[in-house]
Write a structure and sequence with these properties.
The protein is mostly helical. The chain has one domain. The chain is built from six helices and two strands; from the N terminus they run E-E-H-H-H-H-H-H. Strands 1-2 form a two-stranded antiparallel sheet. The radius of gyration is 14 Å and the shape is globular.
Amino acid sequence: MLIIGTLSAFAFSGKNSFYQGYDVNKLSNSVTSQLNTALSLTKDQEQQVLKCVTGFLTEKAKFVSLSNTDKATYQQKQAALFDGLKHKMAGILLMGQTNKFLALKPAANDASNALSILFY
């Protein structure tokens, strides 16, 4: 079950652990907005990216609580889910945009950067 929170509730309780709940739609829109700005998405790309990010966050919500209880399993599931996201994004974005997307990974898990939820 997804615990609904606000984007401001997306915070870390530890260096690498996520808040157990977040509003998928609000966070998806926030992430997509940041990606749109950084990658200069077309309207069609923006809609496809939003759908992709929403699916990613919906799946992540199913195991995000493991970040506090079983970090190894969380990291394994996150890596597999992110690999799927990269593959989907590569089908939406141009090569240069895909490279730029991957370069947007924050240096550390940062609650003030909504993109962190994709990479960590």
